[in-house]
Design goal:
The chain has 517 residues and is of the alpha/beta class. It folds into two domains: 351 residues, no CATH class; 147 residues, no CATH class. Helix content is 56%, strand content 8%. It has 23 helices and six strands. Helix 3 crosses helix 4 and helix 19 crosses helix 20. The radius of gyration is 25 Å and the shape is globular.
């Protein structure tokens, strides 16, 4: 039995390492999407916090690019490695709860879920949140069972690191506390001092964000409240429910998501396992899902937001439906369906980011819209700047902060770029630049909205007619496809208007620092 367990453990490691190698290769084969370029841009303005998210994504990308250069692979390296850590900790928890055979099945399922692959291949805070959540779940389970100091301290450390990655991590202690309250075997652990010391340790780790926000009018928390719909006048709406369930069905894959719903809703689906074990899996996933479901009745929930709450649910699916009693047992048909549907959805999407395998029109191919042509556009911007009367006194801008960041990465020499936010939404550029830095200078910039040149021209003494640039890609199905039209603008004598201006004084996002010029 020891040899068998060791073999399953080695096989689990091989699955995770193989998936890591595949993702490392894929992540070097396509251009940065706009959000990735934005997070890379943060690394040039390192801080204790940022407008949208905590700083971990910037800190880790900075370290990776310092070590391995300013490349797409280096930008994505933290989240690719983060996915491997997530997989390993999830499998460690599966092994501790059930067996290393269950851990192997968990490892296989994790690698096939589109939501996990997306979090790994695209550099976003989710790719760093997931390993922190999985590690906190593992050490949290050890803590409530072992009742010793080290697991509680490690749980606190990973919880604090998770808060530095994404604020969704705040759901973790709420879920753990509820799990302890409803599980008789765990209740007495709260009498110990160590859970509370672990919590204090996590707050200390998170303190850089608190310090930064205290110096910037708590702007990040204003942003989070806005994202949560605090300004929405309509308390309850059904407008977003279909989108919420549709996105989860696709990203978690239909069979897997429906099995999770069955696990959460039907007690009969859980009776085959020891009560305290299944209780941990249930209460470390269900509360978070319910919170996002309730929010979906009020505001749009992006598909990736609930990602960490599925961690323990995935383990349950592997334990309940994968073969594990004997080595020769026929694979359960539901398990076949789970893996098969996950692979059918996830694998073509992973190939699509490298090569347009699927015969999709551009309007339905988000990969094409977000990755095609940035390098070519950067060269055109560089040429346009060199043709200006005084290239040294010409700044580069985008009307979207993501586009400004793409230009920063792909324009030769990776120059500083600005985002004109006046008509858009508040973002990190409001903290880096103000009008006094560029008033009187000429500019070259881009936007995607036809007719926007008239509004942008009001910020300059005069301007040239815009130049339309068509971004294309070559598809084996449709030949040359137009991906999007970009408008290149040349303005002379900037008069001011960089920062976001709220449309009403009651906007919770409005701070004096962001809106003053």
């Amino acid at each position: 039995m020891k040899t068998t367990g060791r073999n399953y453990k080695v096989s689990t490691g091989l699955v995770i390492v193989t998936a890591l190698a595949i993702r490392l290769f894929i992540s070097s084969q396509f251009l940065l999407v706009p959000d990735e370029a934005n997070y890379w841009q943060w690394t040039r303005y390192l801080a204790l916090g940022y407008h949208d998210h905590p700083p971990m994504i910037a800190w880790t990308i900075w370290l990776a690019t310092q070590l391995f250069g300013q490349t797409e692979l280096a930008v994505r390296l933290p989240t690719v490695v983060g996915c491997a850590i997530f997989s390993w900790y999830t499998c460690l928890l599966a092994a501790r709860l059930f067996s290393w055979r269950c851990a192997l099945h968990t490892a296989i399922l994790v690698q096939l879920i589109l939501l996990i692959n997306g979090s790994a291949l695209i550099a976003t805070p989710d790719g760093l949140l997931l390993p922190c959540w999985a590690a906190a779940c593992y050490h949290g389970y050890r803590a409530v069972n072992d009742r010793s100091a080290p697991p509680w301290l490690l749980t606190g450390i990973w919880f604090g690191l998770g808060l530095l990655s994404k604020y969704t991590m705040v759901l973790f202690p709420a879920s753990l506390f509820l799990c302890i309250l409803v599980t008789r075997e765990y209740r007495t652990c709260l009498r110990s001092i160590w859970p509370w010391i672990g919590l204090l340790l996590s707050i200390f780790i998170f303190s850089p964000v608190l310090i930064w926000n205290s110096q910037h009018e708590w702007v990040t928390f204003r942003h989070v409240l806005f994202q949560g719909g605090v300004d929405n006048r309509e308390l309850v709406t059904l407008a977003y429910i279909g989108d919420f369930f549709g996105s989860q069905l696709l990203l978690v894959t239909p069979v897997c998501f429906l099995l999770l719903l069955r696990f959460w809703v039907l007690p009969s689906s859980r009776t085959q396992f020891p009560g305290h074990k299944v209780s941990y899996l249930l209460w470390m996933s269900l509360p978070g899902f319910l919170i996002f479901l309730l929010l979906a009745f009020h505001v749009r929930i992006y598909g990736n937001w609930p990602a960490p709450v599925y961690t323990t649910g995935i383990i349950f699916i592997a334990a309940a439906y994968a073969p594990w009693k004997t080595r020769f047992e026929q694979i359960n048909s539901m398990w076949k369906a789970t893996l098969g549907v996950a692979a059918i959805i996830s694998l073509p999407v992973m190939v699509q980011v490298v090569y347009p395998l699927l015969p999709l029109p551009v309007d339905l191919d988000r990969t094409a819209r977000e990755t095609a042509g940035w390098d070519m556009l950067g060269k055109k911007i560089n040429t346009a700047v060199l043709q200006m009367p005084d290239p040294e006194a010409t700044f580069i801008f985008g009307l979207r902060y993501q586009y400004a960041s793409e230009l920063a990465f792909y324009t030769p020499g990776q120059p500083k770029t600005l985002s004109i936010n006046k008509w858009a939404r508040p973002n990190v550029y409001d903290f880096w630049f103000d009008d006094s830095m560029v008033v009187g200078q000429d500019a070259v910039g881009i936007f995607t909205y036809p007719g926007m040149e008239a509004r942008v021209a009001t910020l300059f003494e005069h301007s040239d007619p815009v130049e339309e640039i068509v971004i294309t890609r070559k598809s084996p199905w449709f030949g040359i496809q137009n991906v999007q039209e970009i408008y290149l603008f040349r303005g002379y004598g900037f008069k001011g208007g960089l920062r976001w201006q709220p449309q009403n004084n009651d906007d919770i996002r409005a701070t004096e620092e962001q809106t003053s010029q």
